[in-house]
Every structure is written in C-alpha cells, then in structure tokens.
C-alpha cells in the first residue's frame, strides 16, 4: 500500500505518521520528491483501512498495490484449482460440468427431470429445498423432505447434488445428509457468519455472486470461506442488477475472464437467473461457455407453467437437450486436446 503525503507535511507530522504505520507491524519506506512524500507501507496490510488513512489531514491519496484477497489470488497460486464434487465430477482446470434441475425441489418429478438432464449430459443435480423468496408468503421450499428427495435422486442417478443453504443452523443437517455441493445464494453472498462456518467444512461451496457485488467483493466473500481452511470454492456468476429491465438480471460475462485472470478458483455461469427468461437461456449458456466458464448451472422443469418458482426461466428437458448439443459444440471449438469433459 502506498500513501502519498501532502507537501505541507511537517517533520513532526511525518514522524507521527511513521510511528502509526510501525505500530501496525509494518515498515514505512519514505521517498521524498519535490512535490510530495511517498510512503510505502510494507508488510501485511490486510488490516489497514485505506479509507482511514485517506481521511488523515496529511494524506493526499492512498493506493493499494496488492489485492486484499490472498488465498483466492492467482498471484500466490498460479495453477487452476480443480474442485472435486464427488462421483468423479470435477470443475475447474479444464474440467467442465453442467449442473441442472428445477429451481425448487417439488416432489418426485425431481428424479424424472434429472434423469433427463443426465441423459443430455448434465453432471450434477440441482434443486432448492430451502428457497430464498422475496415474499415471506411465497413457497419457502420443502425443507428436510426436499433434502431427502435430493439424496434419493443422487443415489438413483449416481450424480452429486448441489443445493442452497440459507441458514447456518441448517449446516449439521446438510452435512448429515451428505449434500455434495453447498450453494450460497445471491442473497447470502455476504453473509459472513455463514461463509465462515462453511469454511470450516471441506465441502465444495458454490458461491453465487451477490446482485450488487463487485468482482473484488465477490472474491473477498470467497476469501471468507478459504481463510477458514476450505479451498473448495466454485464461483458462480448469476447476473447483477443494472438499469436494464428487459431481463431479470444482467449476466456479467466479463466476470468470467476477469475472475480467471485474478483468481485460480473455477467460475461457472447461471444463465437462468442471469436472464430470467427461457428464450434467452440457451444463447447465454453458449456465450458463457465461449467466454471460458468452467461449467453452467441451468434450471430445468418438466412443466414450467406449474413450477413453484422461476418457471419463466426454466428450460424443458427437450430444450435442455438441444442446449447441451450447442454447448458441446462450443466446448470442442474452444478447448485444446488436454482439456477434459467431466
Ligand atoms: C437459485 O439457484 O435458485 C437461486 C435462488 O439463485 P440466486 O441465489 O442466484 O438468485
Ligand atoms: Mn431459481
């Protein structure tokens, strides 16, 4: 971190500033120019608040040199992280997997839907048993019975399941049921106590981007999980809120190469929540694949008109099948011989 001090700074103020920096366990490297004094703060600056520094009268401006995310940073971990989701399904480092299923677990149709998505090439089951609904009066999900159905689908289809955990108090139940991948939804993307508890497990975590999160904030959320010891984080771009109203969200596909540049963690895209309308899901699934996403999460329903939630963005199994054909063509066009299909 670099602090540029105002030219008017007195020796006494400078001494005081250097003592302040040293008291934080950092070294202060001074460089005096004609116009300004530049102080390099060397050491672990993760606990220094740049806004506090900038608020000091003698400080002109402050610049971070290194990113605050360390464990998620590609600089300190150049190789891609590969997350093992169970049943031989891997995501990241050339391994691509599609997670598919209904928005909500509604009953036994989950197994039929996922049998169809598996036949089309999906590698993981999705379905929410605990649903974060905007209205408290809307269906909140099946709860534990929904987890049981997911487990049944998992055993029958021999595929890992990915489902959302909303409340830290549900974690023992998710672990007891052996849920393979725990999803953190957009609404909980910065629920730090939840992220910390998930960080104490060794479960793969699908961490969705918050609807108004910057990429840096998203990576800091991943850092919360990783700093507790769990490196199995898969990031999921699911669209952000912009001024656009023609789609539910704006799927930020810039984020895919940006995350790959900044971080070694895999990033998957969710074109269902990213667009909100069935008609746009396949084109954006293809676009995300072309942008280098390590996987996709897609909502599929056997009868979208009757879905408990998100029917407007669900693909039917037949539409999903066609989408998967296009996705496979794009994957083969952009991957080199050593990349694998999970
Ligand atoms: C979901 O996956 O069904 C979901 C609620 O997603 P998000 O948290 O991205 O809105
Ligand atoms: Mn949904």
Arithmetic mean of pLDDT:
96
Q: What is the share of helical residues?
A: 25-40%
CATH level-3 fold name of the largest domain: TIM Barrel
Each distinct ligand: phosphoenolpyruvate, manganese (II) ion
- Largest beta sheet, briefly? 9 strands, parallel
- Per CATH, the superfamily of the largest domain is Aldolase class I
CATH architecture of the largest domain: Alpha-Beta Barrel
Please report the number of helical segments.
11
CATH first level of the largest domain: Alpha Beta
Indicate the low-confidence ranges by residue numbers: none
Beta-strand residue fraction: 15-25%
Which structural category fits the helices and strands?
alpha/beta
Question: What is the succession of H and E elements?
Answer: EHEEHEEEEHEHEHEHEHEHEHHEHE
Number of strands: 15
Inertia-based shape: elongated
The Cα radius of gyration reads 23 Å
Termini separation comes to: 41 Å
Tally of distinct domains: 2
